[in-house]
Amino acid sequence: MGQNDYLLKDLQVIDGTGSPAFNADILIQANQITGLGRFSPNDAKRVIYCEGLTAAPGFIDIHNHSDIGIFSHPEARNYTTQGCTTLVCGNCGISAAPFHKDYFEISGFEYDVSDCHPPNWRSFADYMKDLIQLEKAVNIASYIGHGNIRGQVLGLENVQPTSEQLESMKKITHEAMASGAAGVSSGLIFDPGIFAKMEELITICSVVVPFSGVYASHIRNESDFLIDAVMEAIHIGRESGVRVQISHLKTSGKRNFGLDKTVLELMEYYRRFGIEVTSDTYPCIYGQTGLENCMPAWTRESGKEGLIDILKNPEKRNRVRSELSRPSLDWENILLDAGFDETYLAETKRFKEYRGKSLSEISDLMKKDAYDVVFDLVQEEPEVSVLVGGLGEADMEMVLSHDLNITCSDSEVVGLNEGMPHPRTYRAFTRAMTTYARDRKLFTLENAIRKMTSMPAWKLGMYDRGIIRPGMKADLALFDYWELKYHAEYGDPHHYSTGMHHVFVNGKPVIENKEFTMNKPGMVVPMNR
Question: pTM for the complete prediction?
Answer without folding.
Answer: 0.93
